[in-house]
Amino acid sequence: MEEHRETKLWTVNNTVDNAVENWQGCPQIVDAAQLLRDGEVVAFPTETVYGLGANALSDDAVEKIFLAKGRPADNPLIVHVADEAQLQTVAEAVSDKARRLMEAFWPGPLTLILPKTDRVASLVTAGLNTVGVRMPDHPAALALIRQAGVPVAAPSANRSGRPSPTTAAHVLTDLDGRIAGVLDGGPTGVGVESTVIDVTVEPPIILRPGGVTREQLEAVIGPVELDPAFSAGSAETPRSPGMKYAHYAPEGEMWLVEGEEPRVREKMNGMLAEAKRRGLRTGVLASAETASYWQAHPEADVVLSVGSRAEPGEVAQRLYAVLRQFDERQVQFIVGETFPRSGLGMAVMNRLEKAAGGRILSV
Hints:
Elements lengths: L7 E4 L8 H5 L2 H11 L4 E3 L6 E5 L3 H11 L8 E3 L3 H7 L5 H10 L4 E6 L6 H4 L4 E5 L4 H10 L3 E2 L14 H8 L5 E4 L10 E4 L6 E4 L5 H8 L3 E2 L26 E6 L4 H15 L4 E5 L4 H5 L6 E4 L6 H17 L4 E5 L7 H11 L4 E3 L1
Parallel strand pairs: 1-8, 2-8, 4-6, 5-9, 10-11, 12-15, 12-16, 13-14, 13-15
Antiparallel strand pairs: 2-3, 3-7, 4-7, 5-6, 9-10
Helix pairs in contact: 2-7, 12-13
Pfam families: Sua5_C (PF03481), Sua5_yciO_yrdC (PF01300)
Keywords: ATP-binding, Cytoplasm, Nucleotide-binding, Nucleotidyltransferase, Transferase, tRNA processing
GO molecular function: ATP binding; double-stranded RNA binding; L-threonylcarbamoyladenylate synthase; tRNA binding
């Protein structure tokens, strides 16, 4: 694929209402869907982050995703479907528990690991005999996939390792000139990627926390486990996207400090002072509750709040945009707070730990 090419930009937000049927005839959707059928890659909005889509049944098309992102080929991709027929194209079987989860959370931010069919492109599954599938809860995404008439493989639409994109502008920052087009549907809602759960094993295993919490899953199907590959030092082969370090990372060196106040604040103070002595431009990733303290701190050059500790949904929605803002403001050293790991906080902390490359200090 050419390194530099014209990247089309279509704007669909605020043009029609949220009924998928009304989006389907949009010229922008039709144009983007034709490019997908032609084997090109197109970025599009979902309710989580922007995805970089290609025909999931074509290795040639899927290869363009890896080339554009600079993504390792041993990292599997999630396939997005718009209806039952597309699901049957990529999934060999659907268990009772999988069906119950679909009924509860589809369309929505939940990816199910299912036995794959032979029609799925080999590059999608990274050599595994399973495939991750989800149905996105965004009218533009569903309309695009239906219009294309093929299941769409789509990781996040960013350069590999960078914070995931929650706006079309983020996509263009990373991929302008490298992909065929970007469908601009406005800012995304959830802000972190889908939860990935393997329902081919018993009990089911969460491979990646995301927009559907463990508590919500267990309310529908009973006990689920957490994959040991969550741990920073795990050397296990990834069975899900986004399980490698570093990932979602800003350009500056990032550390997290966890523990009880005031020891967390004292440690962060010391780290900022040391970074300033090294001549680095410093940043603090703060909660809404502590932002004013850090904004008055003489050794914190940039202070950005990701939201209230009491509102994990707000933190999830703002996280990637804040990480990108540190890059825009040329911050070289970032120290951040940690957040409660319950509910959606599990996904928030998973992304923060990967953004920091596993650099976490307990005090």
